[in-house]
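Lecture 7 notes: from sequence to structure.

We start with a single chain of 240 residues. Read the sequence below before looking at the structure.
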Amino acid sequence: MTEVQFFATCLAEQFFPAAVTASVDLLEGLKLKVRPLRQTICCGQAPFNEGLRDEAMGLARRFLNACTPGVPIVVPSGSCASMLKVFYADLLVQDPALRDKAAAIRPWVFELSQFLVNVLKVKYVGAQFEHKVAYHPSCHLARELRVGDEPRLLLSQVEGLKLIDFRNPEECCGFGGMFAVKFPHISTAMAEDKVARIKESGADTLTANDCGCLMQLGGLIHRQRLPIAVRHLAEILASR
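Now the structure, written as tokens:
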């Protein structure tokens, strides 16, 4: 394997550009040719979750037209990778042409840590990060993609990094896309619970594979003025 397609995702491009750069640097450091999918901006998950199927199908069509089946598509987001691999089947059920395109790329879609560990068989990437790190497993990553140990395996091989456990890590951070907008009090309470447990653990850095989770938890950490940095997994793995 010498080439991969890279889908940056809209949240990462808008709010976490360092995660995009780090992901590309990481893949190129493993001697892969990275081809960014520049003709697409969003997988369509946000409108799909709101029942705006026409808008979601328009974004799905744009995404699928930008892809080449048979070449891995690496996504630095469990949520967006889940949309492509799992929920396109529902979204596109009434459009046979798009449905077939989605089926053709489905086996080639991988979340970043999933691709590194399960496809490339890589755990050590030469990273160095002298911090105490808490890892938040995002819901879509764990529940839809069944990615569990892969991020922790990668973090365990980072020089100087101490992986910190905290209570009930599998609980949702409360983001859930529009859930955070429609039910702000519930969403905030869920985030407060998680941040309290991370603070209790003594970690000085929080990491995850989903920018939505990092926005949710990072925003609360900022408002509480806690001395906890927020980093996408790719940023840590690309640290030297």
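The two ends are 25 Å apart (CA to CA). Keep this in mind for problem set 3.
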